[in-house]
């Protein structure tokens, strides 16, 4: 796959040696700004996450959810948050009927917007708008909460001259709290009027969907599918209650590729399994997890009508890259975290087995605590790999921390403990990445998972979440 080379102005912030300030008690009072500042500078209310898209035959570009042709976005303060005036309402729209797909939490206590979106996607293969609110999860709110979703979707649909099923809803915030419907409905005209295809439109939406996040998560790439350049972009939120299937995370993915509905929906599920279902912060799977993916088809590329052709493989790689970039940004921004942990596993029978072992290690509280303590305790890594319920030959187990090999052939190796500890310390000081490499055999399976270290601040943040 070749890369498209267009004249594009791109601002990619450098996060080398950059530290994000993290509160010692609560994220609820991060910033106090005036209403005018929020209205005019929503896109810059919080800084951007580092660009963590994997390398590949694509070019990173600016624009997030508005990079692909046909999409607009906006984010404003609508008065839904319990305190502060950070933007809390976001909207993403498409100029045409976009092929739609979704992935959702597996939690039985699914929020009203999750239930609504599932029904809407069953009724229609296309959508035109995604409305997102922060502040209230609208989960465990009964029939009244579901009717709130219906009324919000209907009001926006009427304003945009759409049918209700073309409007999808995502919510994030405190469980058990219904949407502040009156404030939301009153803010809709301003939200619609702020829609823009600009970078600022995308960034303002990425800010508005955040809760305890300290950075906005927005990425976009451009690449060739067949002979035509296509774009894939997205935004996500998430920082705590992050665990596979999925987590307290919301996401919107957009592309201008041309793809059939059944193919697109399968691609999205595959990409989610390789990204958002491979991240963990604290082991909690939430009630509201939703990823909506929309394909406008406005690139003019050849239609992808089956999963077996080279064009489908190219688009899948692009979709994987964007979702993995966003997923890693979520883990990087884990509540109280000082570094990202990337676990790579090889040597299994297939990808699913490698992914499960990687997820097991990334999820281990003992591994995460050791990383925070800058303790190269490889025994915890071996233990977590072993209880993943994937059988492997212990005599083939190999573990490395960065470039430092700790175990080989199932046997511990003499290693420079101070150097290994310093590797962990540098990653924490720079808010960088700790790489763990695990090999369990000679099979072709490869997989990755991402997490973060577990610090004292995580407990402080969540001990006072509603107070």
From TrEMBL:
The active site is formed by 248
Marked site positions, Cleavage: 247-248
Enzyme class, broadest EC rank = transferase
What pathway annotation does it carry? Amino-acid biosynthesis; L-arginine biosynthesis; N(2)-acetyl-L-ornithine from L-glutamate: step 1/4; Amino-acid biosynthesis; L-arginine biosynthesis; L-ornithine and N-acetyl-L-glutamate from L-glutamate and N(2)-acetyl-L-ornithine (cyclic): step 1/1
What is the reaction catalyzed?
L-glutamate + acetyl-CoA = N-acetyl-L-glutamate + CoA + H(+); N(2)-acetyl-L-ornithine + L-glutamate = N-acetyl-L-glutamate + L-ornithine
Residues given in the record as substrate binding sites: 211, 237, 248, 335, 462, 467
**Ranges in coiled-coil conformation:** none
- Principal localisation: plastid
Q: Name one GO biological process term.
A: ornithine biosynthetic process
What keywords are annotated for this sequence in UniProt? Acyltransferase, Amino-acid biosynthesis, Arginine biosynthesis, Autocatalytic cleavage, Chloroplast, Multifunctional enzyme, Plastid, Transferase
* Record EC number: 2.3.1.35, 2.3.1.1
The record's Pfam families line, in alphabetical order, gives: ArgJ (PF01960)
Residues spanning the membrane: none
Q: Where is this site: Involved in the stabilization of negative charge on the oxyanion by the formation of the oxyanion hole?
A: 172-173
Q: Which InterPro entries match?
A: Arg_biosynth_ArgJ (IPR002813), ArgJ-like_dom_sf (IPR016117), ArgJ_beta_C (IPR042195)
How does it associate, per the subunit comment? Heterotetramer of two alpha and two beta chains. Heterodimer of an alpha and a beta chain.
**In which family does this protein belong, per the annotation?**
Belongs to the ArgJ family.
The protein's name in its UniProt record: Arginine biosynthesis bifunctional protein ArgJ, chloroplastic
């Amino acid at each position: 796959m070749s890369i498209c080379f267009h004249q594009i102005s791109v601002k990619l912030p450098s996060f080398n040696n950059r530290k994000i300030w993290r509160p010692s008690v609560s994220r609820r009072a991060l910033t106090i700004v005036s209403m005018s500042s929020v209205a005019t500078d929503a896109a810059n209310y919080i800084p951007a996450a580092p660009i963590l898209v994997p390398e590949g035959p694509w070019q990173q570009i600016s624009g997030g959810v508005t990079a692909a042709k046909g999409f607009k976005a906006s984010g404003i303060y609508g008065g839904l948050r319990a305190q502060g005036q950070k933007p809390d309402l976001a909207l993403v729209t498409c100029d045409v009927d976009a092929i739609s797909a979704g992935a959702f939490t597996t939690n039985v206590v699914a929020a009203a917007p999750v239930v609504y979106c599932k029904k809407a996607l069953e009724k229609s293969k296309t959508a035109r708008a995604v409305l997102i609110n922060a502040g209230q999860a609208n989960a465990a709110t009964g029939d009244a909460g579901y009717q709130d979703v219906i009324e919000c979707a209907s009001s926006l649909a009427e304003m945009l001259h759409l049918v209700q099923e073309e409007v999808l809803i995502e919510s994030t915030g405190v469980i058990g709290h219904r949407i502040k419907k009156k404030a939301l409905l009153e803010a809709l005209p301003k939200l619609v009027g702020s829609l823009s295809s600009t970078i600022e439109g995308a960034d303002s939406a990425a800010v508005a969907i955040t809760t305890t996040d300290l950075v906005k998560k927005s990425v976009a790439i451009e690449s060739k599918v067949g002979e035509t350049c296509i774009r894939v972009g997205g935004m996500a939120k998430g920082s705590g209650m992050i665990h596979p299937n999925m987590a307290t995370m919301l996401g919107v993915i957009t592309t201008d590729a041309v793809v059939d509905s059944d193919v697109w929906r399968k691609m999205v599920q595959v990409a989610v399994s390789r990204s958002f279902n491979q991240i963990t912060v604290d082991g909690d799977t939430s009630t509201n997890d939703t990823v909506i993916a929309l394909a406008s088809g406005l690139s003019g590329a050849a239609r992808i009508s089956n999963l077996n052709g080279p064009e489908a493989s190219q688009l899948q790689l692009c979709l994987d890259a964007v979702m993995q970039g966003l997923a890693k940004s979520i883990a990087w921004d884990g509540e109280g975290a000082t570094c990202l942990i990337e676990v790579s596993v090889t040597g299994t029978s297939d990808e699913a087995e490698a992914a499960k072992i990687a997820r097991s290690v990334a999820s281990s509280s003992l591994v995460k605590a050791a990383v925070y303590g800058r303790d190269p305790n490889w025994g915890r890594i071996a233990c977590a790999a072993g209880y993943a319920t994937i059988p492997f030959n212990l005599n083939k187990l190999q573990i490395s921390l960065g470039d430092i090999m700790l175990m080989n052939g199932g046997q511990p190796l003499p290693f420079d403990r101070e150097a290994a500890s310093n590797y962990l310390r540098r990653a924490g000081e720079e808010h960088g990445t700790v790489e763990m490499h695990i090999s369990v055999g000679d099979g072709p399976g490869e997989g990755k998972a991402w997490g973060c270290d577990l610090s004292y601040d995580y407990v402080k943040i969540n001990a006072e979440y509603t107070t």
